[in-house]
Amino acid sequence: MADTASATTPIIIPEVIAVSDFAAALGLPVTKVIGELMRNGVMATINEQIDFDTAAIIGADLGFEIEAEAAPEPEVRAAKVKLAEGEGENRPPIVTVMGHVDHGKTSLLDAIRTTTVAAKESGGITQHIGAYQVKRADRWITFLDTPGHEAFSALRQHGARMTDVAVIVVAADDGVKPQTKEAIRHAQEAGVKLVVAINKVDKEGADPVRVRQELTELGLQPEDWGGSTVTVDVSAKSGEGIEKLLDMVLLVADIEDLRARPDGPSEGVIIESHLDAGRGPVASVLVQNGQLRVGDYLVAGATYAKVRSLGDYRGRRITIANPGMPAVVTGFKAVPAFGDVYRTETGEKVAREASAASARHLQAKSLGVKKIDASQLTAAIHAGNVKELNVVVKADVQGSLESLHEQLAKLRNDEVAVNIVSSAVGDISESDIAFAKTAGAILIGFNVGMSSSLKAIANRDKVAVRLYKVIYELTDDLREGLEGMLAPEIVETVVGELEIMGVFKTTKTAVVCGGKVTKGRIAPKETMRIMRKKELLGTGMLSNLQRDKQDAREVFEGEMCGMSVTTTVAIEIGDTLEFYTTESKARTLDA
């Protein structure tokens, strides 16, 4: 027990602290703290981290009062800064298009670009930056280009939360799907206004009325049915309804009265990032407040940049990016993470210190914080029984990498799991192959390249390399690989029962007997359970079967038969033989 002075003076600690530092703060031997942690089910070494709640419990058990140190100034969030009435200037609405993978989201985005971009400019839209702008009635609309399959729920969730309007695409010939519901949920949780684009209305079997009915069942009453949800019939193929869709997006945005602060520090969010061979770390940002200029210093998570160049969605050089505008930024010290917010600072020193503080915070959290948690204890007990499929993951951009991490983490059960031993942005390199070989891992590439010489090295080193462009094909393949690692399920089927009515000869290894089949049918070479008054005596196998003193291939319910049973059990009159078959059945992760 601590002395009175120590017990009455609160011990101030951060939200995450190393066991050694916690012991020092308490003035106790580290072995005593580790022992107390173990008594509470936390197996932590001297250099491992524990969270504040765990430290507070352990401290109280040892007679100390633990308090959290003052939280640092909260990170500036770039999402929807509320301005005073009349403050700021109008800005373009930011729109995310979401929906089921086969419902035409990409085709709709292409149709919007084709409809709104002059022919002389269309050739300039060649680079993918995660967002682009279109012009309708002298007004700009910014579209975030987030993937549409359910596997990219993380990207879509980020997308919805930096968005003013979500366009939900539903195919008129297919209706509302689980991915559609997921997209609607993300938008509603983020407080985003919805516009439903009912696509493929010109396709055979299209039924927009059925789609509207399904939306009603989800609580989205269509506006043309007296509700408040805007629905527009469109065809990405013919262009029908595209202009009306844009008009409705602008109308919904006008009701929201979207404004942004044009001056002061620029704030925004990283919507895509990657490592470019010629330009170094490159990020696409969405400006949400203030003007971003060439030469500005900005901090994004654990890295910072002096903006060396800015580019618009066409790939053209610009000097200023205004609120509501997507822009490509070069000059980062490292690749920022997808979804990180950024803020410009007054100079390099401030930016460097802010990014370093964020890096330290992230590092502390990534060290594997130990907690008092019953579910973690259960997981630890079973951890030794989990078979792991090791993978090395390379992706084109940070957003894709984040989504892959999230989806691969879901591919697991109590027996098997995917273990990402390494992941990074960029094309596959020789070092990736070497690392995969050492780790015994599959090398997975998503939207990345691999030269023929590297393929030859992978073949030589017997490293399995799989390249994908569609994420659900990737997850389906890995799911199949994990399911192949599962021990098969043994399915047992009772096929018949027989009551013993006579025993003719008994040896150490066999019994010759006879009886009547009371259920199902029996056949030679089938295994059996020998039951006496519903108690299991043992097992055996039917080695020979006769009916009317003739060998029989099967005997059915109600028929009498004689048999030779291979068993060590002394069978008696009145016993029941239960015949059964077994088969090996492949299991799935969900089973």
Summarize the structure.
The protein has 591 residues and is of the alpha+beta class. 38% of the residues are buried. It is built from 16 helices and 33 strands.
CATH superfamily of the largest domain: P-loop containing nucleotide triphosphate hydrolases
Strand order of the largest sheet: 7-8-6-9-10-11
Compute the number of strand runs. Answer: 33
Residue fraction in strands: 25-35%
CATH topology of the largest domain: Rossmann fold
- Helix share of residues? 25-40%
How would you describe what is shown here?
With 591 residues, the chain is of the alpha+beta class. The protein has five domains: 4-68, no CATH class; 89-260, Rossmann fold (3-Layer(aba) Sandwich), CATH 3.40.50.300; 267-362, Elongation Factor Tu (Ef-tu), domain 3, CATH 2.40.30; 385-485, Translation initiation factor IF- 2, domain 3 (Rossmann fold, 3-Layer(aba) Sandwich); 489-585, Beta Barrel (Elongation Factor Tu (Ef-tu), domain 3), CATH 2.40.30.10. It is built from 16 helices and 33 strands. The chain has a six-stranded mixed beta sheet, sandwiched between helices. Helix 2 (19-26) crosses helix 3 (30-39) and helix 7 runs parallel beside helix 8. The longest helix is centred in the middle third of the chain and has 19 residues, at 348-366. The two termini are 50 Å apart.
